[in-house]
Amino acid sequence: MADDLERMWADLAPVGRSAASGGYFRQPFEPAERELAAWFAEQADARGLPVETDAFGNQVAWWGSDDGTGAVLTGSHLDSVLDGGAYDGPLGVVSALAAVDLLRERGLVPRRRIGVAVFVEEEGSRFGQACLGSRLAAGATTWEQACGLRDRAGVALGDVVDGGPSAIGGGGWLGDVAAYVELHVEQGRDLVDRGEAVGVASEIWPHGRWRFDFSGEANHAGTTRMEDRADPMLTYAMTALAANKQARVSGQRATFGRIEVAPNGTNAVPSRVTAWLDARGDTDAAVAELVATIERQAVERAGRDGTAVVVTAESVSASVSFDPSLTRGRPWPVLPTQAGHDAGVLSAAGIPTAMLFVRNPTGVSHSPAEHAEIADCHAGVVALADVLGELAGGLAGGTTA
Questions:
Q1: Cα separations (Å) of 166 from 142, 154, 155?
Q2: Are 379 and 358 in contact (CB under 8 A)?
Q3: 366-382 average pLDDT score
Q4: What are the φ/ψ torsions at residue 53 (nearest 5 degrees)?
Q5: How much of the chain exceeds pLDDT 70, in percent?
Q6: pLDDT per position as a tens digit, 71-129
Q7: Do 149 and 177 belong together in one domain?
Q8: Is 16 within a domain?
Q9: pLDDT of res. 167
Q10: What band does 6 get if pLDDT is binned at 50, 70 and 90?
Q11: Cβ contacts of 262 within 8 Å, gap of 6 or more
C-alpha cells in the first residue's frame, strides 16, 4: 500500500505544474486536467475496476457487486485553483485508490460495492460554479443552468462538453449511493495545533460567491480633474476595504480575490470594474448579514462617487452538517471546515456523508505552499480504509496495515 501511494503521488506531481511558481494549473477540460482524468482511468483499469463516466465527465470506478443496500462512495476531485497546491483534491483520489488496495490486502470482500469518484470542476476555477460536477450529478444544478457558463476567454461550458439536456442528475448513478466519505488535506492549522495527523469534519460553513458590477465613466487619467471623475475603481477599492472590516468585526470571512477592469489602461479612468466576493460565515444568517452590509456600503459609496453598483449572487451554499454515525467511535478530533467540498453537495442531496482531514503542516491551501507529510498521508489512507471497510460490511472496525 505504501509503495502504491507514493508511486501514484509521483505520477501526478509534474502534471500541470508551473516551473515558475511551483503551483498547479489543472483547469477543467484543459490538457493537464484531462491527462489526470486519463491517469485515473488507467489506475482503475490496472486494479480491474470498471469506470463509469457520466454525461458531464464525472468518473467513478467500482469495486465489488451491488447487494441491493446501496454503494459506499469515496473520492474527490483532480482540478485545481489557478496556481494551486498539489494536495487539494488529488490527495482524496489517490488515498481512495490506496484505501481500496489496503482493503484488498486485508482480504475484504465488500458486501456493498465501493466506488471511487472523481468530480469535475470542483474549484469553479474555469466556469465560476464551485462543485459543478457534483451539483450536476446530484441534480442540484441542471444542464440548462450550467451549459451557458463561460470561462475567462468567453468559451461556454456547452461548447466544451456535450452534457445535453439529459446530463446525469437526480435519478442517475448517485441514486444508488448509500454513503459518501471524502478525504481531504486540511485547509487550516487545527490539526497542527492539536498535534493530530487525522481529523473528522463536523460541518461546512455556509458560503457563496457574489459578483459586484461597478460602472462609471471612462476618461483621461491626466486631463480629468479628480473632482470630475466617476471612477468605479475607487468605489470597488472602498468596498473591498469595507468587506475586510465587516468580516473582521463579525468574525466571518470576506475576500475579493478576482477583478476585471475595462478598458484596463494605465492612463485611463475605468468605465467598469467587475469584482467577485467570496463570503463565508458560521451560520447562514451571518453570511446573509455580512453580504447585505457590504452591498449597502458599496451602494452608499457609489452614490458619493457618481458611480453605480449591481450585486448578483452567482453561487450560494447553505451550511452542511455531516453524519456523525459514519465515523462514530473513532478517536479522531472533530473540527468544522470553512471550505466548500463535493461532500457538502452530496450531503445536501440527502446522502449520509462524512469527511476526513489529513494534517497540513503549513496551514496554507490554494497555494503552492500547501503540503502534507507522507507519514500523515499514510495515516489518512488507513483511516479511510477503516471507515470504508466498516460501511461496506466487510470489517467490524479499524485495523492497521
A1: 9, 24, 21
A2: yes
A3: 94
A4: -120, 125
A5: 95
A6: 999 999 999 999 999 999 999 999 999 999 999 999 999 999 999 999 999 988 999 88
A7: yes
A8: yes
A9: 44
A10: very high
A11: 218, 270, 271, 272, 273
In this structure, is the dihedral angle defined by the CA atoms of residues 113, 116, 118 and 122, taken in order, positive or negative? Answer: positive
176 and 27, same structural domain?
Answer: yes
pLDDT in tens, 201-260: 998 889 899 999 999 999 999 999 999 999 999 999 999 999 999 999 999 999 999 999
Distance CA 12, CA 187 (A): 20
pTM over 0.85: no
Give backbone dihedrals phi and psi of 221, rounded to 5 degrees, phi first: -70, -20
Which triple of cell numbers denotes residue 282?
458560521
CATH code assigned at 121 = 3.40.630.10
Q: Which amino acid is at 37?
A: A
Q: In the numeric block, which cell numbers belong to residue 299?
A: 451602494
Domain end, chosen from 277, 301, 317, is at 317
| Cell representation of residue 13 | 506531481
Q: Which cell numbers in the block locate residue 289?
A: 448579514
Separation CA 353–CA 74 (nearest Å): 10
Distances in whole angstroms, Cα of residue 334 to Cα of each of 91, 106, 195, 198, 222: 20, 27, 13, 10, 57
Give the contacts of 197 (CB within 8 A, at least 6 positions apart): 191, 358, 359, 375, 376, 379, 380
Sign, CA dihedral 220-221-224-228, equals: positive
Structural domain ending residue among the three candidates 317, 333, 364: 317
Within a domain: 401 = no
Per the document, the length of the chain is 401
